Amino acid sequence: MGIKERKQRERERRRQQIIVAAKRVFTEKGFNKATIEDIARNAELSPGTLYLYFKNKEELYASLSLRILQYLAIRVEHVKNETNLGPLEKMDALMTAMYDVYEFDPLILINMFHLQSSETIKNLSPKLLDELNDLTRKSIGVIADLFEDGINKDFFSDQHPMALADIFWSMFSGVVLLETSKHALNEDNNFLKETLETAFEIFSRGITRNPKRNAG
Description:
By secondary structure, the protein is mainly α. The protein has two domains: 1-54, Homeodomain-like (Arc Repressor Mutant, subunit A, Orthogonal Bundle), CATH 1.10.10.60; 64-207, Tetracycline Repressor, domain 2. Helices cover 77% and strands 0% of the residues. The protein is built from nine helices and no strands. The protein has helices spanning 3-33, 36-43, 47-53, 57-80, 87-104, 106-116, 126-152, 161-185, 192-207. Helix 4 runs antiparallel to helix 5 (87-104) and helix 7 (126-152) crosses helix 8 (161-185).
């Protein structure tokens, strides 16, 4: 391995070290109370070193979302490529995939939803913002492809596939945020999975031309 490759590997290792430390600090203190100094201390690095990798706290916070968006893209693409499933069966698989994405990292997923609707996103570098947007668009685009396939095969009502995908994504994020806030107020209140299942079922019935049709 050459010097250039070793430097690149070391830089990536250091970047991951910072991201792991940031996740610990954000989990413990929350975004507003956490500081770059806290994260640097947790990573056993100087604050100046962190700024070599991330422009600000907002960018570091947003970088945590990339991993879960990459996982989302993989899961929905897998559903799309399931050639042995019919349109209705793929809807069931999509719903399972979305809950798997939540379980993959609940905290980061919730933070990502908050990020996408906050002023924080304006403080990100164009490169990171493009990465976040591209990954999100990619996954929603694949979800739209699933709806389009069902429409073309006369299983789903003739609506714009991208509109259906946007509604599906909004429903998912809305339920996650609502149930999370309810759980924060009452730890005994944890009905996320049941609520998502109900929401997905109602949505699926609403777009299906004939719910009694065979899924193949």
